[in-house]
């Protein structure tokens, strides 16, 4: 297998995305199958922070928005 480019993302990234989207702690807790409550990170304050190939820009209007994505190349290329 050669997945090529990978956007490394975890369940915590998705939960922070929900926090930034306005979901409250009680609703997020209902989505988790864990005894430990999830606390929203202060560093993920907007939904544009999700490291995912698609980019969501709500209420763009006339304002410029910067988004950052981190991509890893995992090519299993052979050098001959």
UniProtKB/TrEMBL annotation:
Listed Gene3D superfamilies: 2.60.40.2310
Keyword Nuclease applies: no
Coiled-coil residue spans: none
Subcellular location: Secreted
GO cellular component: extracellular region
Keywords: Signal
InterPro entries linked to this entry: SBT
Keyword match Signal: yes
Family: Belongs to the peptidase S8 family.
Protein name: Putative tripeptidyl-peptidase II
Source species: Lupinus albus
């Amino acid at each position: 297998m050669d997945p090529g480019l990978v956007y490394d993302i975890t369940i915590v990234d998705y939960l922070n995305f929900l926090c930034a989207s306005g979901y409250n702690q009680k609703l997020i807790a209902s989505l988790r199958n864990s005894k430990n409550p999830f606390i929203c990170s202060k560093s993920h304050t907007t939904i544009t922070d999700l490291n995912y190939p698609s980019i969501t820009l709500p209420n763009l209007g006339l304002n410029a928005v910067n988004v950052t994505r981190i991509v890893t190349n995992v090519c299993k290329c052979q050098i001959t």
